[in-house]
Every structure is written in C-alpha cells, then in structure tokens.
Amino acid sequence: MNKKEAEDLVYRSYVKAERYQQYDEKDAVKRRPDLTRDIIRKRAGTPAVVVTGSKGKGSVASLISQILQTRYKVGLMTSPHLVDFCERFKINGQNISDDEFVRQMALIQNEIEAVEAHIPENVCISPMGIQADLALAFFQDQHTQYNVFECGKGARFDDVNNVRHEYAVINSIFPEHTRELGETVEAIAEDKAYVITGEQKCVYVARQKPSVMKVIWERADRLGTFVKVYGRDFYAGNIRYSHKGMVFDAVIEEERYADILVPLLGEHQARNCVLAMALCKDVLGELDIDRVKERVAETDWPGRMEVLSAEPFIMLDACIVAASCDPVKDVVRQLGIDEITAIIGIPDDKDYDGVAGSMKEIASDIILTRSQNPHYVFTQQQQAVLAGRGVETIWADSMEEAVGKGRALGRPIVILGTTSVVSEVKKLQLSGKL
Predict the structure, then answer these.
(1) Angle made by CA atoms 194, 78, 161, in degrees to the nearest 5
(2) Reduced to 3 states, what is the DSSP secondary structure of residue 253?
(3) What sign has the CA pseudo-torsion 151, 152, 154, 160?
(4) When you count CB atoms within 10 A of the terminal residue's CB, does the N or C end of the chain come out lower?
(5) Which domains does the chain possess?
(6) pTM value?
(7) Which of 23, 386, 66 is nearest to 179 (CA)?
(8) What digits encode the pLDDT tens for the residues 304-321?
C-alpha cells in the first residue's frame, strides 16, 4: 500500500455509496456512525476531549492540545487538511509521517473491510470514522497520554463522537451546513449538543444565542452533565490587537491570567483561547501560566485570519457564511485598512451571496472564483444572483487567476473560501505564485 492507496481507502466506501444518495438528504439519513462505534470504542481508552461548534473548532482543539502539552504527550486529530492529508493527525504538534500513515492504514484495513463487506452499496462507512480509528490506533501505538478530536459538521451523526471523551467543548453555533444538519440554528444546536453523551465530567460552552443555549442546557440536564459557560465561568477581558496577534486577560472562575498572547487575529480567537484554557485548567488541576503562555504563543493555525503577505497585503480566512464576516471586517479595520479587494471562493450551495453582500461594506471589488475540487460546484450563475441584488462582481476560473486580477487592482486583498479553496491558496504560496 502506498500513500495514495491509503488515502483512497479512507474514502472508498463513501465514493461507492455516493451515487445512490440524494444530494439534499440530511445526515440523519446518509450517515451511519453505528458502523464504526464498536471499532472506535474498543481503542478509545486514553482520556480525550471532543470539540464541536460551527466555527473555531480546529483553533480550539489546537489550543487545547498546545496547553495540555505542558504536562502530557498529546494526540490531535483535526479536519480537513490544507495541503497534506497527514496534517490531520499530530502528536505534540508533529504530523504523522507518510510511512507511518500507510503503516497504520494497513493495520486497520482488515477491520474496515470486514464492516464494508456487510453493508449494502447505498450505505457507507464515514471517512471520519475511518480517520478516527486510524488516529486512535496511531495514538495508542505512540502512547499518548491525552487525545483531542475535532468533530466534522455536527456531532449526533459524526463518528468522531464515538470516541469516549471525558470532556467536551461546544464552540459558538450559527446557521451553517443547513442542508445536512437542519434549517434552523436550534436544529443545528440539537445535532451538535449530542457531543454530550452523559460520560463527561464537564462540557465547556462558548458564547451562544439564548435559543441555542436552551437546547444545550436541556440535553446536559437530561444526561446529568455539568456545564461551564463563557461569560459566567470564564471569559476573555482587556482584549487588544498587537502586531503579533491578540493579547488578552483570561479570567477563569477566581483566577485572572494577564497578558496572554495568541498569534491569531480577531477577538474571537481570544475567546477561543480562554475556552481552551478553562478546560485545560480542570484537566491539569492548575495552569503553569508561564509554560501555558509559551505554548499558546506557538500556536499555528493556517487559513484562519492568516496574513500571507504584508506587502502587498493578502489575508486568508476559511469563511463560508455571512455570520463569519464580521470578525474578518473587524480585523481589516483594526489593521487600518479602508478598502480591499475581496476574493471569494464558495460553492453554489453555500452562502456565497451572504458573504459577498457582507464584504461589500469594505470591498471596492469582489472577485468570485472556483476550486478545482470536483466534489464542489462553482458556477458563474453566482454573478447573476449577486447582480440581481446590486452586487457587481468579477469572475476568475482559478484561484491563481483571481489573485492575479486582485493584484492588478492594487488594493489589499482578503481571500475567503471553503477549505479546498484555502488549500489551493496555500499551495500557491508554497510554490511562490502568490
């Protein structure tokens, strides 16, 4: 087995079943986390955290991993990757090697194929389940002492939630993935609240709308799970921008930790960091704050308010819904930038129109583009829809063309898009074409 064959094995069952499934079916119909439950749970003995939410899951998972490394050897599984599939599996910040990835896939291949052999062609083993199985096998082999897992879209029908976890995190929830999770924010919250399984010592919840918080409280109360909430049990205060990122004070119950630097832009990153710190304080018993500051300051989370170039200014963010635009605009204004060119690469079935409409406030020009990923649909019909709403745009057939057109306009550039678009931007950066 080589690396491509190993990656193909992750998606083989999904690809086989995809042609039988309806595009607009909910996860409740399409996804079968029960297929991997026994496989995953037999390996899930190491203490673990599972993180869900609408955005910021990866940032919080990474920050938790960084802080826990002040005492433990920590496994981290996140998704999706930006450049290399092996980015999804880390131990103490180091990606799994290509050879080790192939070796671990070969070791779990028989048990995956045993499940696959007994399901009809229209049913699939979720790629997330196979990845969680691989992560656990890898972490177990390397004797990690604590593991952190990022859920995919939701939690109720996400195989990652099969991992036994003594703590859970629910980051901010807003309308996204409505086709798969539900049409309302309350329906989405109900799905994600299933990260509470009744096995948790505590669940840590970010700032939420009251209707979302009601859903979370109801599930936690029903399962007898203790909850700590942003704004009551912990919060970020004295938040300010610096040339290195966000600086803030973390207030966790009776303790105040001053001048924490997280090298990520946006006030929400300060809130993400204190959310991670609150959990880690309970796991560790106390925070060695000097070491915590060192670890947090080393956090690297590409594609999230990432400044790719200072001159000309180019910033990249994996923003695909209008609700995520306000932090982007706030960062731009805090950096003293008045007008930008926005490059937007969001599929037809996502909120490209909401993002373009929101960014119009600070964008003199908006360039729409596509990803080369065949699983996503990007068409120039987006231009017609936006023109009908009074938003004029420019079309580019590739990210490289979009960046070229953006540079020719001579203004700072902000690139927003789905993860496949972000991946293509990172590849352009690595190749020197940005």
Answers:
(1) 20
(2) coil
(3) negative
(4) N
(5) 3-297 (3.40.1190.10), 306-431 (3.90.190.20)
(6) 0.88
(7) 23
(8) 888 888 888 999 999 888
